């Protein structure tokens, strides 16, 4: 488990402040900063759990981007480590395999590096399941803690909780009144303590109670069929193991009549249905990963536990099968990349080449399945080869999505992000402030642009104000205005434009296979993005020649 924990920590904690905060992240972080600095709290608290724990971090003096994302990263790591609670109840291969996939899951890594309560919600959901599977003396207390914590986290928790209730996992302790009593007490204490930020923020109770109506408001009729399946396509794009291994594991669990597996299948199916019913809430797809990878772990334990009548020959067969799977996967990846580079997957030959590649892959898969049908060693080889290929793909995707693409709306997972120009704008204003006042934060700045991103990154400037109307006869050192129209300035100003936010542009036509492969493999895309730009006006008398 130790290498898995190290891998999970590296993916979640490395370069936490590499990308600027998005608008939703900036709103969540700004509420904590205002409360910590005793400023008027004028932004909503969407996640009392995130507010409570991040307040503790900021009370220690850390208030940057890394501090804003530290709590989700911690809970993201703890989510991976929760599979340790299942030891003794399921085979080690089961919880180790599940932990490995959770550690490199691109969507879980992305959620764990996003300021907000979604990472806490996923931790609480898996805590409910792990405590129930463990079934020890403290299981009722752990379930209560998970329930109380989840109810203060985010609407994502209710998405997962509905599936757990339907599957019967959350109410498994209901027959024992003593355990039910302990569970209720633990849930109530945890809910009250976390929601009120340890009694420092009583208004957090109201914010926690508003999470459920917010979740109900996420149900809506999709505008089109493509919008309805967009979260499922994101799941397929970033988490192919959910479909390549998760669906066969679900079929096995139903056919083998595995009690835990069947409940996980129900949870998984309900989550997929909710993902479609709340199609505009992309983060719901992350909840479906939990039961899928637990099912993959159970299937891996079942295959690994089958004994081979000839151990020596079985090891050779398993090694040969795994090597063949890896070779086929590598060949397909290289061929797809080459075809995309040469634009062979577009035009008249696209269908013929696609069918040829598909026939080749299906033929190889058919041969391997025929070999593995009666051979436990061959089945283990197929599993090892498939797991190795999927882990390789998802590890690279997790690194790219969390460190490079988290603010890129061309990613299917990202709907809105902050432009990289923000990382240039703030140091520029600090340099001007040093030249004028010999201090990095003594400029008088007025922003006509209402943006939580600007409010977050300009929070340290003592003279920062914002509003829709420019004050009469303003003497502000810097004025930030929209690029659409030039404001009526009473003095002489000069300006430069910077990108602030960028959003996705809905697809106007079908996505070509070659375009998708170029983006996945080489980060090349011609897709358009809608960029919101602002103009920073600096008073002319502040300019000094170098």
Task: Give the C-alpha Rg.
Answer: 26 Å
* Span between termini: 57 Å
Give the class from helix and strand content and strand pairing.
alpha/beta
Secondary structure tally, helices = 23
Q: Using DSSP, what is the number of strands?
A: 6
Helix content: 55-70%
Order of strands, widest sheet: 1-5-6-4-2-3
Instruction: Note the beta-strand portion.
Output: 5-15%
What is the average of the pLDDT values? 86
Stretches where pLDDT is under 50 for at least 5 consecutive residues are none
> SSE string, helix = H, strand = E?
HHHHHHHHHHHHHHHHHHHHEHEHEEEHE
The shape is globular
- Biggest sheet record: 6 strands, mixed
What does this protein structure show overall?
The protein has 546 residues and is an alpha/beta fold. It has 23 helices and six strands. The protein has helices at residues 2-13, 23-36, 48-59, 65-81, 92-104, 106-112, 118-134, 139-150, 155-167, 177-195, 204-209, 211-216, 225-238, 240-256, 259-277, 284-287, 289-304, 311-341, 350-372, 376-403, 422-437, 452-457, 513-522; strands spanning 416-418, 444-447, 463-466, 478-482, 493-504, 529-539. The protein has a six-stranded mixed beta sheet with strand order 1-5-6-4-2-3. Helix 22 (452-457) links the parallel strand 2 and strand 3 (463-466). Helix 6 packs parallel to helix 20, helix 13 (225-238) crosses helix 14 and helix 18 crosses helix 23 (513-522). The chain is globular.
